[in-house]
Each structure stands twice: as C-alpha cells, then as structure tokens.
Write a structure and sequence with these properties.
heterodimer; A: 458 residues; mainly alpha; globular; disordered C terminus; B: 1032 residues; alpha/beta; seven-stranded mixed β-sheet; six-stranded mixed beta barrel; 36 helices
C-alpha cells in the first residue's frame, strides 16, 4: 500500500454524509436488539450470575471460600483489582491525553474507551470491598468524623487507593458525561419516542447547539482533559504503592510506579482493541473505526509493551545489583520456582508477542491484532498474579512458605468480573452512542478549514 | 449450661450429704427460701387459666396460647427448664470466688503410668487452664501437652453423658445409674464362680488398687488384668536380671555430661518427659559451659531427642544389640574392667567394622569412646524402652563398667501387688473367654480391643462373654462390644492419688462437679461392692484409706483432717523415704549376651508412641491432633516414615500408600520421607486410626496396632522381615511446613544467607565470645529518631540451647488465647491458627541432617511493618512496646500479614468454630473452655500473639492497686509458663537490674532477619552445638 505521509490519513473512510454519521452511530439505539445481541447478553449475564453466586458464597461463609492463605493473603482478589484498574487506563488516556496532544484520530475510539474505563473501574472497585474479611465494615476506610475521634491510617497505601480510585472514577465519569451532552441533544432531537425524549432531555441539560454552548463546552472539555491527565498516571502509581511501600521481596521495588502505568496502558489498549474489533464488525462501523485506528492503537501497545519488558529486565538487574539475598531469591524463583509457568505466560504475552507489532502486516491484520490483544490481556493478568502470589508464597522465612491453590469460587468471582464488565459494555452499546457523533462530524473530510481548501481527493 | 449443671445435682441420686469441694454451693442449693420460692412460682390458678384443653373452641386466647406455647417450645428446644430443677443467679457467691479472679487447685494428671503435678486454673468455678504444680518434685511447675489439653477433653461434647445399656436388638439405650447398679449387681452375683476380669491400664493409685482389692473380696472371682501400649517392662526386667531387684531407676540427667541415647527418645516420649527435658536443659546453660552436656544419639528415625543431639547417627533398631556389643568390646579393649562377657562372643563384635558396614561415622565413634572413657561416672548410656532385653542388659553392663551407675536415682516405684499382665496370662484369659469360663469383663477405663495385639484373638473372644461392661469417658472400640457402657468422670471431676516415686504421693482433687451423669471409675466399683451408692463414696473411701493406711506412716504432727487439707492444697505429700538402694551387678545376667553378629537385612518396622495422641486415648482432642509433629510438622495423621534411599528403593514418593505385611498382619499407610532415617527402617507412630471415637479423632490416621503381635521375636514394637508393596494409591498428608527436597538448590542456603538462624559451637564460643555478634548486622541506621519507651517495655528471649522443639508452648498458647482448631482441610491450605510455630530447618545431607529449631511468634517489632500498612489502624503500637491488635477495628484486609516478614499473623478465614467438622465447636459446652479474659475472634479478623496482653493487664492492675511499680517479672506469658526447659524468658527490656536483662543483652543474642531493621523484640540466644573442636 502506498501511503503519502505528507497527508493525514482520512479518519473516517468512505466519505459519508453528515446524516449518514447520525444514522450509523445511532442505529444500535433505534433498532430493536438483534439475536446476536441477546446471545452476547446471555453469555455475559450468565458469567455475571456465576460471579454473583460465588460472591454470595464468599460473603456468607468467609474469605476461606477462596484459596487465600497465610502467607498468600492476597491472590485472585487483588490480582483482579489491579487487572481491572489497569484496563481502566486506556479510556482516559485516549480521551484526555490524546485530546491534549491534538491526536484527532482518537475520535473514533474515545467514547467507547471512556465507557470501558468507567465499567472497568466499577468492576475493579468491587474487589477492595469484597476482599475484606468483614466487608460490612468497609466504611472504616473512609475518613468520617466520629465520636471516637478515630481516623483511618493515612500512611497506609490501601487508604491512598481509596482516594485515588474514587477520584479517578469521579473525574472519568464526569469527563465521559460531558462529552455525551451534545450527543444526547442530537438524540433528543431525533427521537420520536416520548420516554426516550424525556430521558435524553434530562441528560442533555438543555443543550441547544448554540455557539455559546459550544464555546463553554470546548473550554470545559479542555480543562477536564487537563484534570484527567495526571490521574491517568497517578492511579496506577498509587496502586503500585500497595506493593512498593511494603517490604516483601518482589514487591519492594522503586520501579513499580512507571512500570505499573505502562502495563496498565498496555492492558487497557489491548482490552479496547479486543472489544472494538467486535463492535466495528457487529455495528458496521468499519468506516468510522478504521484499520488505521487499530494500527495506531497497536503502536501504543508496542511502545508500552516494550516499556513493560524493559521493566521486567530491570527488576532482574536490580535484584542482582542490590545483592539482597531475599530479593535475588525471589526473582530467581520466578524463573525456576513452582510458579514458573505463570512467569512464562507473563513474559511471552507481555514482552515477546507484542514485538510482532513491529511488522506492518501484523499491525494491519485484524485477526492477528485480535489474538495479540487477547494475549496481552492474559499476560497482564498473570503479571499481577506473579507479583502478588508468587512473591507472597516465597518470602523471608522458608518455614512459612506455602503455595496458593485457587478454588472454584476464585474462578467464579473472576468470571463474574468479566460478566459484569461485558454486561455493562453491551448495555452501553445499546443505549448510548458508542462513538461521539459531534466529534466524528468534526473530523470528516472537509469539515475543518485546511490549506488544501477543504478537500483533497486524489 | 445451667441445664447441665442442674442435671448433676438432680440426677436422681441420694443428696443426703455432699461435702465435696463444692461445699460452699451447698447452702445455696439447699437454701430453704429459694426452694419455697420455686414452689410458689406459679400459683395453681395461674396455671389453670392457660390450660389449652379447657378453653372453648377456637378462641383468641386459645390461639394465642398455642402460638406462644409453640414459640416457647421452639425457643427452649423442648427443654423443660422448670422440670430440670433450679437455675441459679450468681447473687450469693461462694466464699472463695472473687469475680474476675482465678483460683488455682493442685491436682494430678496421670498419663501412661506417670503422674504429673498440675495446677488447674478456674474462673468462677470453671476450669480453664492447666499448668504445672511448682511444689511437685518431678514436675516442678511444668507439665505435658496432654495434661494441658485435658481441659479441652473435659468439655468435649461427645463425652458420654449417661449410662448406656445394650438392648437385645444391639442398640444402646440410655439408662440410669439406679437401674444399671441393680442389673449389674445381680448379674455379677449370678456369675457363680466364674471369673470377672477387670481390664485396666497401669494403676499407680494405691487407693484405686485397694478399691479393686475390695471388689475382689466381694466377688472372689474377680481378677485384675492390666496393660500399657508402651511400657517399661523390658527395661525393668533387664534391670531385675542385672541387679536382682527393683525397677529401672530415674536418671540424674542434670549430672550427665555425656549422654548416649540408643533409640531412646527421652526428650520426647520415653519416660517422664517433663522431668527429663527439664534436667537435660539444665545442663545446656551457656553461662556454665564447663558443664554443658553432649548428646550422642543413635536411632532409626529422627526423633525429638535426635533433633537435639550434638552428634546423631542412624541405625536400624534391630542392629542396636550389635552396636552395643561392639561398643562394649571397644571399651573393654581400652582397658575398662568388669566387662565379663564371654570373650569368644565379644571379640566377634568390632566397633569400626560395624561402623563401616552400617555407614556410621567411625571418627564420631572414636570421639564417643574417648568421651565415655574420659567422663566415667558422669556419662549415661540410655537405651530406648522399645529395644530388646539383651540390649538393656548390655547397656546396664556398660554403664556399670564405666561407673555411670552414680547417675542412677533409684526412686522409681510401683505399687506392691501390682504388675502388668504377662503375655501368658493374656493368652489364658482369651482361652477362658473362649471356653465360657469368664462371667464378666469390666473394661476399667481401658480400650483392650484397640490396644491388644490382634492375634491374641481378644475381639472374637469378647463376643463369647455374657457380660461386658465398659467404663469409659467416651465411646471407644471396646465399649462398642459391651453390654453396658458406663460414663466415667473426667480426671478434673475426680478424686485420686498416685505414687510413682518413693519420695512422695500425688493427690488428685476435682475442680468441677461432674458435668454429666457420670461417676468416677472407682465410685462405680465401690457402688457394686457396697451395694449402695452415695455421692461422695470415693472421696470418703480415699480419705479413710489415707487415714488408715498412709497417714500413720508419715509421722505427721498435724491431725489427719488438717494434714489432709494441707496435702490437697499442695497436691503432693512428701513421704521422706530414702531412695532404694541398688544391688551390685549380677554377672549371671550376662548370659543373655550370647547372640553372635547376624546378617540383618530386609525392612524393619518400628512402632513408636504418637507425640500428640499418645496411645490413642487423646484422639478426640483437637488441640493435640492439630499440634504439628515436632519433626515432620505433620498434623492430623500418622504415616510410615522412611529414609530417602529406602523411598527410592521402594519406588515411592511422599504420600504414596504402601502396604506393609508382617506375615498375616497387613497395614496400608502413606509414606513420609524423613531425612535422617535409617535405611530399610519404617517407623510408624501408634495412637491413630481409631475406628470408634468422636468426630474429631474418627478416621484420623491409620491403626498401626494391627501390626503388633503377641509373639514378637524382638520386642512388641520392633518387627523385622517386613515386606512392602506399593499400592498405587495416594493419601493426603498435611503439614504446617512445606516439604522441600533437602537438596533443592532453590531452597538450600536460604536460611543461612538471610541470617534466619545463627549458630556456633561451644568450643568456638569459648575461644571467641563475640562469635555470634560478629555475624550480626548491628549498624542499622534509621531515618527517624527512635521512639521513647520511658516505662516498661516488654521483650522476650528464647534460648535455642534449651528449646527442644516439643511444642508444649503451642498448646499452652491455644488454651490461654482461645485459639480455634481448624481441621485437616484447613491446615492443608495453610490456615492453621496457632500463634506460635516451631520452625524446623535441616542442614547438611539428607542422610544425616542437622536440625535447627526456632520458635516463631510475633516479634513485636519497634518498626512493625504491619502497623503502617493497616488502612484502619487496627494494629498499632502501645506505650510499652507491644504491637497491639484491635479486633473490633479490624476489617480484614490481610495487608498486615502480607507485610509481616515473619508471617506470624493468623487470619480467621472462616468462623472456625462453625467451620470445623460441621460446627462441632459450636456446642455450648465448648464455650466453657474459653479464657474469659480473651476475646473470641470472629471470622474475617486478623489475630496474633500479643505477649499475653491479658496477663500484662492483670499485673498492671495489681501493681496500680498496690501502689508499686509494675515489674517485668510480674508477668509470665503462657508459653513461658509451659516451656518445660525454661527456654522462654519474658520481662522488661528497660529494667537493667532484672534477670531478663541478661538474656536480652546476652552475647549469644540475635534477632531474626535483623537486616530488615524492623527492630524485633524477641531475642534468640544462638544454639551452641557441643561438638568436638577437632570436628569444627
């Protein structure tokens, strides 16, 4: 394929009319659900129900229903938490950072990625609560004035988590909703259904597409993007403090903040890619979410995947360089110890497989990208598993070492988290515009003034 | 509970007099006004009004009455409280009880023919903890794990609660004592001259024996049989051969500088371990290096004693005779006289050839011989009780020739007219049973069907006896075949006395009224003797017996009643008798030493007493079942322990099930590979595999008693020429420490390079007292100024020279701190709750490993890593240096445990009370065992050791009330109290005049993982191995 690099690639292919854009994007909202939708929804809600039952068992009988033990006090619970928080990183990165960097290609994927962020953080947010031995006392983690003058322990990283995650969720939600307001207005204008009209009217907050509205909107959106940007970096930094601040070999590592952020973006993009490959096919949006979008996302994955690989190597280097026996042991045990299979999963999925993206053929093959993105998701889950479980199972005193073996309930809760996430994604796709209508219109060929005089068809 | 207390007061028996120790309750129970009030509680008219039957049709009142009646029925669980007697508020309290203050009663715990002096702590009339009686000359304030666990057995809800009678259909029916007494008395009377066999364990109580003698007088056909699964018979018979009379003496371990233990686990299960381990540890004092003892151990399987040996070698038990003979020959060659064994035979044994053939270390044996010769008169050679008689004779000869008989303390004694039943008598008993000559069998708190060798044919013979009566606390294999099962009281509900040494008697007094319709076993017999049961029948009998038989011989100044009360208070009575004398060695005994060296090959099976469950009696005790085995750390099972090479030869791995055949006798049992085992030696602990037992012990382990034979060639516990078959099955064995292959490159070296254990030798330490200090990292800097602890700051020290790794502290901690039992399934997933664990590390080769022990509990770090990560500040630091746990605040993130480098925190993954064995521990009765000073933790809460904070608080309150400063020595932790070797010390770090200060600042002191700079407050005194300098 010959590409003229002096010109920006068309962000929307097929040169649709403005009305077509409305049509394509709102089609899932206006048409009755298809058979495919019901199949997908039944699969995801089955997973959700499995999770709900597993959770019920956990709440009724106790954490003992999981495989956690002493020394491995955290296992699937916190692995899932960090995994889902990581997934939640792509959205805000795409919408906020790429917005600030004037990467207009973000338009096609931003709304969806933001939605996934919200759902992933919601999924993640369940785990810190349910992993508690006494989840009914979770309120103790919130600083509230009380007669005992008892406050939470402000030096505990778990408390920082509470603030970091809740802030991130709030800002992401607001940012997402802001972007939706003009679209809600379009939907309000288009729909004839009374109930829908009422709902859209409420959520569009009286938006009239006026010039003044747009001016305020653009300014606020910019400010929100500015606010959200540091959060992308801070949330996973603070999550990584859960480990970095402790003294367990394999946890107590200063490289964790950047390493976790890179990993989170890597896994977040992988998840967005996985889902979008489906969505663009199912909803016929291949013209708006183009192969170019996928290629660009693949490049981000290559970058962050390589950063993660670098961090892996650096951990080993530092373990050797530090001359701390316990630290050296832990990393050596990752490679040859009883959990080596998890480590091999992690290394191959996160460090080796993404290197295929260097090849353009790979980048532009939807099937291969899909496989790579699935691998990245698996690999990143195992990364957290290796860090948490393998480090805990082999810490300082060999007398206390013990392996972790997951139970069915562990897998049930994990399945349930996927069920919750995908159920929310499906409902989202059916009830809200998954691509920003107004923004897409703004990146159509000729929609913006340019030196080419608006149109440059070859 | 009121129900149970009431039952015993109203169990239909005569209440004429009850001057038992509950005397103070007497007035309360008999209070006239109370009784009157009870009668008047419902006046006639009131009751009439609610008679449902008299109400017309369906009326509102009838409906309400029915609703409330069914609600009341449901609520009361059909229990008619009123009908059961009084429930009593604690308004008028007994004189000796102060609410919140414990009372201590001296008593005696009898286990395997040994008596242990105990102090039972009671709170508001409820026994909650057992400690040693400091006045007891043998126990000296210490006691055994089994005695401590007895408190749990007392509240075992599966104890028999009333007499059972077998119906013609073969089921047991509940009955009452009156009926039982009548039926059995008439049945016994009808025995018309046939023998009535009483089968008992070893009896060490003179009064119990007298009860049996009285019984024999009343029923002349009665005959006493007795057994112990593990006993001193062989040792005693060898002694009698060598010295003409007497019993094998106790040993002055504290005078021994060289100890050679041959298949002897004298620190573990052989003999009175409370006494031996205390005396052994006395000579492991790092302040007295010149008297530091040296322990050589030669054994077939790594035992508790072997773990503590300075030199240890492995040898199959059936070769011990050859070894002792070779040693005799070598000693004789070195010019020691008096070894008058037939020289033709003796010369065939050569020590170094033997060593080479059996891969013993020749150089160590050389050192041993040198040591024995150098320390004549202060060395002791001790052969295990499972070894055959000729070994004991040879060992006696060796000790005699070396002048070591000075270390004998001939104070052991047995009751006159008592001896364990010999094999021939058992055989004739079984024959008589088969021939119908036995009228009745009374299992006198014994379980012969489980314990007697199966080839005796006892089980089948029992079925031919018309009347079988089992006196037992809870159902067992023997009671299943009985016609009558009579529940007997727990030792803590019983009176008694005991004599095992010439110098003193121990007294046993009850500390609680029987919880159920039980009688103590002596009472049962006495009722049949006198034909009339009275409530204090045995108490009176005991006092009378003492007054008439024992008191006169004591030359006491006090009158009997005052003497008796004083004796009960102290728990012991000194007789002032001098030890027996030892005759001179009788050379004719040496005739048994005529065996020549034989070629022994094939597998040998060695049966040992279970560390936790003893002979199986304690199988239903969760604390003991869950106590990790001191060596393998296995809980809830026994297993076949084999060496690495033998496992390879049998082509089995750990957890594979093998079938062991000794002729007709077969057993399927899983394998555990034990470093340090002798090759071709299969060691199995007995006391497991109970087939009739409560739910705790049922199906736990494997019954290896089936391998025993009445006609053993060597001894009842050692059988050679066993054959082994791999079954292909596997069986889950769970342990609290992972088994790592000893030569796994991943694991070896970890302990050393992380400085988890620091060790030295006595020789090096003498040369350089800083030897441990130099290995430590002491220049830990901190960014923060140290926190000030101006008052008392608590610390602990553990002397690893004294710690034998027995695990008694674990049981004591369980009892003190209400630690739940979690069961095998939870130990398997590493969720055991014990607050102390005894870490055991191997070093050296898999064949001859060295063992290092290290009790691990919360280190109460100054810079506690658990504290700063808790998001809700549920764990924090106190002004006196404790790392506290606030259970109410804990939400259960488990972050603290993750960040604990010692992993000593324990998490309630379930409500373990209801999780274990389908809520077995939820029984109301179990609540009585809890220490009221300690919160019972709910699920989802983290817990850990807090240096017995409840004891600290009591001491602090006392100090405040008495207007004096709190001192470190005011507090003793539960583990410290229980430690038989006084390895654990506790006190105030800031008090530089205290005894504890010396431990805290000892040159041998080190901290585990010091390089983490968490500043722990548990000081470990490094172990010094007393090896020869030329070895080091």
């Amino acid at each position: 394929m010959n590409i003229d690099y002096t010109k920006e690639l068309a962000l929307v292919e097929g040169n649709p009319r403005l009305a077509d854009i409305d049509e394509i994007i709102t089609r899932p909202l206006t048409q009755p659900p298809t058979r495919k939708f019901y199949i997908a929804l039944s699969i995801s809600s089955t997973a959700l129900l499995i999770g709900a039952y597993s959770l019920w068992l956990t709440l009724y009988y106790g954490i003992g229903m999981w495989g956690n033990n002493i020394p491995v006090g955290w296992a699937f619970d916190i692995t899932n938490f960090v995994f889902w928080i990581g997934i939640g990183h792509a959205g805000t990165l795409i919408s906020a950072i790429l917005f600030l960097l004037r990467q207009r290609w973000r338009t096609g994927i931003a709304r969806f990625a933001e939605g996934m962020t919200i759902f992933a953080v919601m999924t993640a947010g369940i785990f810190p609560v349910i992993h508690l031995g006494r989840p009914w006392l979770a309120g103790y983690l919130i600083p509230y004035p009380n007669q005992h003058l008892l406050w939470p322990n402000f030096v505990s990283p778990l408390l920082w988590d509470v603030f970091a995650v809740s802030t991130y969720f709030t800002v992401s939600l607001m940012f997402w909703y802001m972007g939706l307001i003009p679209d809600f207005a379009i939907l309000r204008d288009k729909t004839v259904d009374k109930i829908k009209k009422t709902i859209y009217s409420i959520f569009s907050l009286g938006w009239r597409h006026s010039n003044r509205h747009w001016r305020h909107y653009e300014k606020t959106y910019m400010i929100m993007a500015g606010l959200a940007t540091p959060l992308v970096l801070s949330v996973h930094t603070i999550v990584s403090f859960d480990f970095a601040v402790s003294l367990i070999p394999g946890w107590h590592t200063t490289i964790f903040p950047p390493y976790f952020v890179a990993g989170a973006i890597y896994s977040g993009f992988a998840m967005v890619m996985t889902v979008l490959i489906f969505v663009r096919k199912v909803f016929d949006m291949e013209n708006i979410i183009t192969l170019n979008h996928l290629e660009r996302m693949a490049k981000v994955m290559l970058l962050t995947g390589s950063l993660v690989a670098y961090a892996y190597l650096m951990e080993f280097f530092i373990a050797w360089y530090s001359q701390v026996p316990a630290e050296q042991y832990d990393f050596w045990a990752r490679v040859v110890g009883p959990y080596r299979w998890a480590w091999y999963f992690m290394i191959s999925c996160n460090a080796l497989i993404p290197q295929l993206i260097w090849f353009k053929k790979v980048r532009r093959s939807v099937v291969v990208l899909f496989v790579i993105s699935i691998c990245a998701n698996i690999g990143m889950w195992f990364e957290r598993f290796v860090i948490i479980v393998q480090s805990l199972s082999r810490d300082y005193l060999p007398s206390s070492w013990h392996m972790f073996t997951p139970t069915l309930v562990d897998f049930g809760v994990l399945t349930g988290s996927f069920g919750l996430f995908f159920t929310l994604v499906l409902l989202f796709a059916k009830t809200m515009p998954v691509i920003s209508i107004v923004e897409t219109k703004s990146v159509l060929e000729g929609s913006q003034p340019s030196v080419h005089g608006g149109s440059h068809h070859e | 509970m009121a129900e149970n207390f009431d039952k015993q007061n109203n169990n239909g028996q005569s209440k004429e007099s009850d001057p038992n120790y509950w005397q103070s309750f007497k007035e309360l129970y008999k209070d006239i006004s109370f009784t009157e009030a009870k009668k008047l509680e419902f006046q006639k008219g009131v009751e009439d009004e609610f008679d449902v039957a008299k109400l017309p049709g369906v009326s509102r009142r009838k409906f309400l009455a029915l609703v409330s009646a069914s609600a009341a029925l449901a609520a009361a669980g059909c229990a008619d409280y009123n009908g059961n007697g009084k429930i009593i508020p604690y308004n008028t309290k007994p004189e000796e009880i102060t609410l919140g203050k414990p009372n201590y009663y001296a008593s005696t715990f009898i286990e395997n023919g040994q008596d242990y002096g105990i102090l039972i702590k009671t709170r508001e009339g409820r026994p909650i903890k057992v400690d040693g009686n400091p006045d007891h000359p043998v126990s000296k304030g210490k006691t055994s794990a089994k005695a401590q666990s007895a408190i749990l057995s007392l509240y075992d809800p599966e104890r028999l609660q009333q007499p059972l009678r077998k119906t013609s259909s073969g089921n047991f029916m509940k009955s009452t004592w009156q009926h039982i007494d009548q039926e059995i008395s008439s049945a016994l009377a009808k025995a018309d001259g046939k023998e009535i066999s009483i089968i008992s364990h070893k009896i060490i109580s003179p009064t119990t024996l007298k009860v049996i003698q009285d019984f024999q007088q009343k029923y002349p056909g009665a005959k006493l049989y007795s057994y112990e699964l593990f006993n001193e018979e062989i040792r005693n018979s060898a002694w009698e051969k060598c010295y003409g009379s007497g019993l094998f003496p106790s040993i002055k371990w504290d005078k021994a500088k060289i100890i050679l233990a041959l298949e002897s686990d004298f620190l573990g299960t052989d003999g009175n371990r409370v006494e031996t381990s205390r005396m052994f540890a006395d000579n492991r004092n790092t302040n007295d290096l010149d008297n530091f003892n040296r322990l050589y151990s030669i054994e077939g399987n790594l035992s508790l004693t072997g773990m503590n040996a300075d030199y240890r070698m492995r040898l199959r038990p059936d070769l011990q005779f050859e070894f002792v003979m070779s040693l005799l020959n070598e000693i004789s060659k070195q010019g020691v006289g008096g070894i008058s064994v037939d020289p033709d035979i003796l010369s065939q044994f050569n020590l170094y050839d033997f060593a080479q053939k059996n891969s013993l270390y020749g150089n160590v044996l050389e050192l041993l011989v040198k040591d024995l010769l150098k320390n004549r008169g202060s060395a002791i050679i001790h052969a295990g009780r499972t070894l055959p008689e000729n070994v004991h004779v040879a060992v006696n000869l060796l000790n005699d020739a070396l002048g070591n008989s000075k270390l004998y303390n001939p104070d052991t004694t047995e009751l006159p007219d008592f001896s364990l039943t010999k094999k021939e008598e058992w055989e004739s008993l079984v024959q008589s049973m088969n021939e119908g000559k036995i009228g009745a069998i009374i299992n006198f708190d014994s379980n012969p069907i489980y314990h007697l060798p199966p080839d005796l044919g006892f089980v089948d013979a029992v079925k031919k006896v018309p009347l079988v009566i089992s006196l037992t606390e809870s159902e067992n294999e023997s009671s299943e075949l009985a016609n009558y099962v009579l529940p007997i009281s727990h030792p803590f509900e019983s009176w008694g006395d005991a004599q095992t040494r010439v110098g003193y008697y121990s007294l046993q007094q009850p500390v609680i009224s029987p919880l159920f319709y039980t009688r103590q076993k002596e009472e049962v017999l006495l009722a049949w003797v006198s034909g009339d049961y009275k409530e204090n029948i045995y108490h009176d009998y005991l006092m009378n017996n003492w007054q008439s038989a024992i008191y006169p011989s004591l030359n006491e100044m006090l009158d009997f009643n005052r003497f008796w009360l004083g004796a009960l208070q102290r728990g012991i009575v000194n007789t002032g008798s001098a030890p027996n004398s030892i005759n001179s060695f009788d050379k004719t005994a040496l005739a048994v030493l005529k065996e020549k060296p034989k070629n022994i090959s094939g597998y040998v099976v060695s049966l040992k007493e279970g560390y936790a469950t003893g002979d199986g009696k304690y199988a239903n005790n969760g604390w003991l079942q869950e106590l990790p085995h001191p060596v393998t750390k296995v809980t809830w099972d026994n297993y076949a322990s084999v060496s690495v090479a033998t496992a390879k030869q049998m082509n089995v791995e750990e957890k594979d099930v093998i079938e062991i055949s000794l002729g007709e006798r077969k057993l399927k049992i899983p394998v555990v590979i034990q470093p340090g085992s002798a090759d071709n030696t299969i060691t199995i602990e007995l006391g497991y595999g109970r087939s009739k037992c409560g739910v705790v012990g049922l199906g736990v382990g494997f019954n290896a008693n089936v391998l025993m034979s009445k006609d053993s060639k060597l001894t009842p516990w050692i059988y050679n020429s066993a054959s082994i078959k791999k079954t292909g099955d596997t069986y889950d064995i769970v342990s609290t420490m992972e088994h790592h292959p000893i030569n796994d490159p991943l694991v070896s070296g970890v302990v050393k390079e992380r400085k988890i254990i620091l060790e030295g030798t006595v020789f090096d330490y003498k040369k350089n007292p800083k030897i441990i200090k130099e290995q430590r990292l002491t220049d830990n800097a901190s960014l923060y100024d140290p926190h000030d602890y101006p008052g008392v700051k608590w610390g602990m020290s553990i002397d690893l020279n004294k710690c034998t790794g027995c695990g008694e502290c674990v049981i004591s901690c369980n009892a003190e701190n209400n630690v739940p039992v979690v069961g095998k399934d939870q130990v398997k997933v590493s969720r055991e709750m014990q607050w102390i664990r005894i870490d055991r590390y191997y070093s050296g080769s898999a064949e001859d490993p060295h063992v290092s022990l290290e009790p691990m509990l919360c280190q109460q770090c100054d810079h506690a890593p658990c504290e700063n990560v808790c998001p809700v500040a549920a764990t924090n630091h106190s002004d006196d240096g404790l790392n506290q746990m606030v259970y109410n605040r804990c939400v259960g993130t488990r972050y603290c445990s993750n960040n604990c480098p010692y992993k000593v925190r324990r998490f309630n993954f379930f409500n373990f009370k209801d999780h274990f064995r389908d809520g077995y521990q939820e029984s109301n009765l179990f609540d009585l065992v809890y220490n009221p000073e300690v919160t019972v933790r709910s699920r989802g809460v983290m817990e850990k050791c807090t240096f017995c904070i409840q004891r600290i608080m009591v001491a602090r309150e006392d100090a405040i009330r008495e207007h004096k400063p709190l001192k470190g020595s005011d507090v003793k932790t539960a583990c410290q109290e229980a430690c038989g070797t006084s390895a654990i010390n506790f006190g105030d770090i800031n008090d530089n005049k205290s005894e504890f200060y010396k431990y805290r600042n000892n040159e041998l002191g080190y901290y585990v993982l010091e390089n983490l700079n968490v500043r722990p407050n548990v000081t470990y005194l490094a172990k010094l191995r007393n090896t020869h300098s030329e070895e080091a």
